[in-house]
Amino acid sequence: MSYKEQIDLNRIPCHVAIIMDGNGRWAKQRGRERSYGHQVGAETVHIIAEEAAKLGVEYLTLYTFSTENWGRPAEEVTALMGLLFESIEEETFMKNNIRFRVIGDTDKLPDYVRGRLNACIAHTADNTGMNLVLALSYSSRWEITEAAKKMAMAVQSGDLNPEEIDSEVFSGYLATNFMPDPDLLIRTGGELRLSNYLLWQCAYSELYFCDTYWPDFREEAFFKAISVFQKRERRFGKTSEQIS
Questions:
Q1: Is CB count within 10 Å lower at the N or C end of the chain?
Q2: pTM
Q3: Mean confidence (pLDDT) of the chain
């Protein structure tokens, strides 16, 4: 039985977040430049996005470029920005009724990339299917710091009472305030860390790590992650008896 056949369509995770790791190592194993791995990885994005939309995932958030990635060699960053510009296919989003969104410090992106992103966001705004969210120039520490600044300004202006601040209010100041926390976080490539990704939001997410490099993470690998997720018991601090 395939992993897809094992999936209970009535228990699909609402929000799946993915750390797409291993593009460069995948390419080096094949004697190619790292940029080639990113190109094939971009193809995987479209495949997984389509499958997630078909399954009924409501939010798919992909860690595409971190704030730390700006420190990579200039030629690799330039190649990544060009690939990002070329790989945004509005046709795919429209065909699958996908709404495109972005979180992160996008002011740092080149103008031509930011223009392409904004155009795609606008053109897909009325789509009612899955939300595909790219985390671009993003890190949790950046996001949490920015949220703290906004809250401090709101307190200073009298729009926010410090006594009213709780986890729900704080979440409202985060870049992810329009979507629920991830039910499932997937990381490919064999590394066992979160790498500054959705740290606040993943407090109770189910974590799934696999050795498969992102370019090889195709349909069946994704279905396996969903199947494993569905076999877990999510207690959120309670006992098994309480949730049953």
A1: N
A2: 0.96
A3: 95
